[in-house]
Amino acid sequence: MTQAVAGHSPSRAGWLAWDGGARWLPFLLPGAVFIVLAYLYPLIELLRFSFYRQVTAGVVRSDWTIDNYVRFFNQSSMWEVASNTIVMGVSVTILCLILGYPLALAIVRSRGIWTTIFLFLTISPLLASQLVRALGWTMALGQSGWVNTLLLHFGLVDEPVRILGTLGAVILGLTHGLLPFMVLSIASSLSSIDPQLERAATSLGATRTQVLWRVLVPLSLPGIVSGSLLVFCIAVGTYGTPFLLGGPGFKLLSLIVYEYFTSLLNWPFGAALAVILMVIVTAMLGLFVKFVRRPWQVR
Amino acid sequence: MTELVVTDVSRAFGAVQAVDGVSFTAKSGELISVLGPSGCGKSTILNLIAGFVRPDRGTISIGGKVVNEEPPSRREIGIVFQSYALFPHLTAFENVAFGLRMRGTPNDEVTRGVDRALEMVRMGRFKDRYPRQLSGGEQQRVALARALVISPTILLLDEPLAALDKQIRQSMQIELLEVQRAAGVTSLFVTHDQEEAMALSNRIVVMRAGKVEQIGSPSDIYHHPANRFVASFIGRSNFIEAVVVSADAGTIDARLANGSVMRASARGLAVNDKVALVVRPENIFVKLNGAAEGSNALKGTIVGALDLGPMSQVQVEVPGIGRLEAALAGAPGERNAAAMAPGSKVAVGWQAESMTVLKS
Amino acid sequence: MAGQMTSASGTHGSRAALRIAVIISIYVFMFFPIVIVIATAFGEASLIEFPPSGFTLKWFSALGEPRWYNPFLTSLVLAVGSTLLSAIIGVPAAWALSRYDFRGREILKQLFLAPLFVPWIITGVALLVAFNRAQMTGTFVAIFLGHIVVTIPYLVRSSLAGIEGLDKRLEDAAVSLGATRFQVFRCVVVPAIRPSIIAGAIFGFLMSFDNVAVSIFLTNPTLTTVPIEMLNFVQWVMDPTISAVSTVYLLVALLALLVADRWVGLRQFAGLR
Predict the structure, then answer these.
(1) Which of A165, A190, A240, C145 is most solvent-facing, going by the fewest CB within 10 Å?
(2) Residues B299-310 pLDDT 10s
């Protein structure tokens, strides 16, 4: 075996050198090939498909046309769906932030067995399939469900309220499902804050509220941002929960994309909708990153 | 002008008694240090005074008022943490301004106070830099300014110079002293570095395993250590076991293990008491060829000699007593390296006054 | 670090009580629907009702039927298999991405992590379109590849995090002692980041098991996963069978979490320091 030599020359010695690029290929290649073939290529195909022409249900012609996009912009019902999707995504994200931050704080401030307990409680709902949780909500929010039973019992309403099939139900269900993601993201960020900083702030006269807003929140911003991005992206991209809770009444982009690909069999239009969804997500990503510049960080 | 009085304070964490009946006072404007090895309880003392930890027993009073029940945010104490704990998301200016802003100080006063504080530590031109853009020494100065700008009653420093390089540390020691004197604030700092404690403090509180071993000025502690621990923790010491053979009005005669008898001044000892005679290496002189000098001279052989630069460290084996360590200062010529070679026969001795007698 | 944040003055008083109440109510909110589902699984009536009346285990017998037991098997095979494969191709890639700087490194890294952020429905239809082209729709290979796409970001992400915490000099030391690159990977890197790999694998496993938006396009009546079957079932019948299935599903996932705690520790699994 050739001795390792600092490789700068493209000779045989360089190839076998420790820093030589070729040596890394066996590690990198399988993964890279896979991700490009099985992920990047399909995405590009999808983009390409959005420019195809739908002839009849199930039949397409591979022209280049922007008809599908034009159709989207012309249909007001589509605009409504898109705006519903954005509103839903943002609401879920904000709710997850409000509910998730206290939980993350509790986890990071806990000691010993309590940390395990809190973590267990936070992570286990994640394990219940999103469907299980959504099912639970359908049982609770249905016409004869728990919530309505309670409302009727206390005389707050005269007849069962329709909760399922509304924006509210979907927001509720998704917040519930995505809360653990937000909590873990924020907790991870909080836990990397130097504990002395809190003491320093307290010694300088800061109350607990001031410590929270002036020290903890700014320094846990990375966790807040990545958690929010994750929650938003999953919220607008998931199918199961919105389907069960939004029902036929409430339409979201993810649901109609599914319809166009399965029952309506208009793949080009469906593809265009998927691309538009991607654009929305990218726009939100850009907004977020712009919104959070941190000049005091190296990265 | 505030006095810090710690009275009989104790605190345990689980089964560990971190601080056990500690009492000391820091007079107004004084700089005292709490010195001891790791685990001696010095950090706990700092946390107790700051208010992050409550004492199980005892009182802490600042300026005559007992503060046991006060939360840390209301004790008006300035703290310089070991890691400086500067807020990474704030500039140097904003870091220093933090305490003032917490108190709702109006903006123009804040600017004046911060500028003044930064000038005091000579960091004025760095005020818009972020902590990550500052070196260790610079961060430390900002941390100091932040602690002082709120005009604290007490200044606490937790191993303030531990993270700095040796060269910087020495210049920072002087700066720290100047700033503290100028501010006139009663200060307590915690350290395991005895050189630092000796250099900076008016008085030192030596601690071990939660208890106070000795309180005194650096000179007191160095020249008159109260027990073996203090004698060996501060500087280096030679311990020579002996037995008291006569004791009379502040003077004793003690017989060493090799039979020779030495006279020393000591009180409260009786015949047959076991004692340890403590002599510091720099007080021992080494003469070639056994030319005896001083009242306490012993004969021995050199077994090791190291030239350490400013001084030479010489180990001398004295039959019946053991190995004694001597530190010889003076110009290299005087130390006569060739003559100090291992195997040379020498006489070692010291002045009676430079010896401390400790009961064994 | 959890536990070191001070709460010196915060463990007593009415403010603390308020905070505890808030935390408890959030957790109640989180468990509420799950509790409902589990409870209804034991009810007598053939209609789902809460609170359930009577107590029976009869709904659980449905799990012995091929209708449920096949999807469970499929889901399990998919989850375990895709996680394994993701680990095999993803962890080495993560190491290469960390140590070897090349043009396009950032892009490739983001590509590996993209399935996390790109809405799953988009991933699903993209795969459908591509497999359709390759005339592979409805095959096991197709859905298997799809699940690898779903799980690989979790493994790459956690491996990257683990490698970041590694002292590179350990690898240098190994090389100086004569190790080949493969040996360094196998004997130095992998053992050191084992907790991260396991954490990523368990997350990946759970996400694959639970996946709807990708599976839904790649499954067919003869080859489905548990979530898809549950979705189909629920549209036609609403009897406690679905609750029973859900309960068993929960047990599988709980097992995964216990494994996580045993092997890795919950704190590390959650990414806390």
Answers:
(1) A165
(2) 888 888 888 878
